[in-house]
Amino acid sequence: MIVNHEGADCLPRALAALAANTATENVECVVVDSGSSDGSWKDVEQIWPRARALRFEENIGFCAGCNRGAESARGRLVAFVNFDGEVEPGWDLPLMQVLEDPSVSVATGLLLAPDGTIEAAGLDIAPNTAAFARQGLMPRSAAPGAPVDVAAATGALMMVRRSDFLALGGFYEPIFMYGEETDYCLRVPGRIVFHPGSAIRHEHGHAAGPPRSPIRLYWGSRNRLVNAARHLPAGSLAKSVLASAAFDVLTLLQQRNGVALRAVTRGWWDGVRAMPGERGARPAEERRRAARRLVSLRAAITEQRRLGRV
Prior knowledge:
The chain is an alpha/beta fold. The chain has helices spanning 11-21, 44-47, 61-72, 92-98, 162-167, 180-187, 214-231, 234-255, 258-278, 284-292, 297-306, and strands at 2-4, 29-34, 51-56, 77-81, 86-87, 104-112, 118-120, 123-125, 131-133, 148-149, 157-161, 191-201. Strand 2 (29-34), helix 2 and strand 3 form a beta-alpha-beta unit.
């Protein structure tokens, strides 16, 4: 499953890598085009005969794109693969192997930077509900040598059972983009497992732009508040909102420009307004269980400092 938006520069390479490196014979590729104007969704089957396009005239967002694709798919398993990444040979088999265990709900693989360093070996979830990379910027050799349980999976490379995904309602569409993996992984009943034998590489950088672009600042600020309201009990929610505020203040002090300030302010305005409607999303016991999945504030700050963001 690939959600595409203006992917003329990267989608053909993503499809070519899938065509060359997917080991499974009985497979289909659904390219969900979310309002592209560059014609990138056209003729995807010429790159990979197993691909087909599902076209939407408007940008429906990553969450809805994945959901519409999963609804139209025919396979027992669904893998979500970023349109700006290139999978490595045999990427699919380790994830399928992990999902043979019925206690596992989500399988995920290694996300690599263009230079081969680790972007993410699974994700942890900070007290403000932001998902952040495990072992980011480390050499590939530092990745675990065997499958390990993680708090969350990156939406760039994850595999689920299609029936389970649809039964849970898929990704939460009001999130639109950025934060969907936190929400989904906090909702699944089973384990999330990282397998180092599956990998995707961002060979040409992120098509979504730099980490602190206005679109990422807006959706990040908004969706951290939405996820906190959806998943956390009152005490953890208060701490999460405070942690989110501190994180965004730090970001603005580093950015020091009006564009970033407007993006974050609008994110908070929309996020705070959405929070009351999310409080009934989960029962009390599930909220307590979700809160236990978060890393400590100390651990989150230590990791951000290691990555040079603090």
